[in-house]
Amino acid sequence: MPAADALAINGGTPVISKTFPPYRSLGEEEIAAANRVLRSGVLSAFIGASGPGFYGGPEVQALEREAAERFDVKHVVSVNSWTSGLVAAMGAIGLEPGDEVIVTPWTMVATATAILHWNAIPVFADIDPQTFNIDPEAVEAAITPRTRAIAAVDIFGQSADIPALRAIADRNGCKLVTDTAQAPGALLNGIPAGTAADIGGFSLNYHKHIHCGEGGLLVTNDDRLAERLRLIRNHGEAVIASDQCEDLANILGHNFRLGEIEAAIAREQLPKLSGLIKSRQQAAARLTKALSCLPGLNPPKVRPDSTHVYYIYGMTIDLERLRRDRDWIVKALKAEGVSGLLEGYQNIHLNPLFRHRIAYGTSGFPWTGLRSGDSDISYGPGLCPVAEQLHQQTFIGLNLCAHAFTDDQVDAVIYAFKKVWADLSKVALR
Questions:
Q1: How is residue 162 annotated by DSSP?
Q2: Which position among 42, 95, 324, 427 has the lowest Cβ density within 10 Å, counted as fewest Cβ atoms?
Q3: What confidence tens digit (pLDDT) does each residue in 350-360 have?
Q4: Residue 243 pLDDT greater than 80, yes or no
Q5: Are strands 147-153 and 175-179 parallel, antiparallel or unpaired?
């Protein structure tokens, strides 16, 4: 028989015997909002032609006004998904075929494929080993005469180093776009994350802090960029009357429009954001206080000028202090009933699409066949060593948006970690 304190992976009793209930931010308010739209009979009021309908229906326009106030930004443009938002953002800044956009490898692949959408070329820069955001020094090293923009991702719930990235962009005549899908409500120097770039924005996908199923919100303080975003969202080529090339560029026939039901639900979610963030921050603070004493485990690093909204609670392990590897530790924690664990994250520069440079057709476009000459950008192992080492060996994430995480549930997770670490101490190097 296993000892009373035996690990579940070795036949002992798991700390957590039942999966925690899934995170749910929807309530009666959202049901009432959806019913209000259904009763109105107007599920969408967008028209791909000049006139009031070009900007959407009453729920869409109300959502955009309310979100602009919530995030203290001049313009909000809603879209039917954050992927659509990224595509619109990259088009709005005026990318030309063959332009380069510097981007992090630690992100959902859409951040990079949105660049390819406009026949521009993603250039991956490594990440900071503590915050997991793109490293400004790596960005600086990746600048070339073809660099047109920097795409920063506020990964896991904390803003990237926007002041440093803004300075690099300004010195090199580049645009700065931020993907704040995971960090709505986070602050950097008191300013809402996502709003200090030329274009930023948030995801309203179902597993984010707030959501309407699918959707996104683009934010900008630039009048011209805001109008270009609206044109790309809604068949702008049918609306724009200008004959100027710079006005027509990238205004293609897209339909990225958000429906009235989704907009109405998102309007009810917006006021909940602060409270939902607070609950994540409380859970994270409880975790950090308890887990900081475990040797070889490093809780999330929060920059002193930032707040963190903890979409994911990102940890690293010190392989020099632990004889067990990351794979065994994660298996042991899962056996104890800890769910929502991430063993590594993304390394999208290793995705076959990028490694083989195959996007449009099979000839390698847009890396090859450009009027200005073929691109020498290549991808593969060794390009982003920090991101690769974290992914392969040392990063462990806990998805704090997977469950509500009451204090009792957090304490159970803490106990599971301490139980696993007690076993690790028996084989620790020092």
A1: H
A2: 427
A3: 999 999 999 99
A4: no
A5: parallel
